[in-house]
Amino acid sequence: MAPFNLVMFIVLTSLNCFLCLVTPTDILNEIESNENISRSCSFESVFAEFYDTQGTSYESVINGCLTNTSFVVKDVTHIEISLQYIPRLERRSIGDLPELESILFIKSGIEHVEPGAFYNLPKIKNISFVFNDFHEVKRGIFNDLPANKILISSPVLTNIEEYAFADMNNLSTIAIHYSRILTWNRKWYGESKTLTTIDFRFGILEALPADAFHGFPNLKCISFRNNRLHTIENGIFQPVADVYLWGNPWTCSCLDSIKEWLRNTNGSIHDNYNCIDFRNPVCVATKSSVCLEELNHEATKTFFRKFSQKRLCVVPVTLL
Fold it and tell me: The CATH number of the domain where 91 resides is what?
């Protein structure tokens, strides 16, 4: 074979081997990876207040990712970002903060949080999004984080993916406020053995399935105040000790289910100081399209006269 042809043969053979090893999928994955790297950091001139392990407060302007290189001290324990504009938290936006225990976003315009936004936060306990604009909670945002409290308040939240809060081995309190979610799904939490408090206030839930709280052996307190609940399935509260239900348009027949739960669990009714007469639960008249609150003193006195004990279930102040 002539020298030139031999060289061409070697080049073509090498090229064919390369094409065999590098598939179109590999190329696309590499492109996607590079795009993720270039777009991953979410912060642009974002003002943040933070604290170190001594409780000393600092202020900083964040550009790029929120990591241990973003601050003048390396032992940051708490970060608060308030009244900023951060429409997206991209993948790997917040991480490599070994002492961080809590992070709080208040009215920061957050609409989307991508799975993997939080990483390498071994001491994180509390993640709070107060009055942001979440549309969806995706699986992969919080899973496997060691946090024990999650708060999301968003008036445009319409969907939580199944198992969005699963595999969180320390999770004790989950608070979802002001959401537009219509249907309750216990699969949001997987089979959580550590969950003690569910706070789902100021929403539009109309019903709870009979198995709503099955699979949560340590659940102690739930709050569904100020939703649109009008009836309760028998036995639904069986594993729960303390329940907040005021501010819902109950039909009076629903009091039978609540009475049965109280008798079975030796429970108590929490006072509602916003009612006309806070000593009694509220029934509603449902003959019109608008539910009108009415007090049925005789019914409530009959049902609850034996239950004078008042036990309060207090959600941690950081989640209010």
Answer: 3.80.10.10
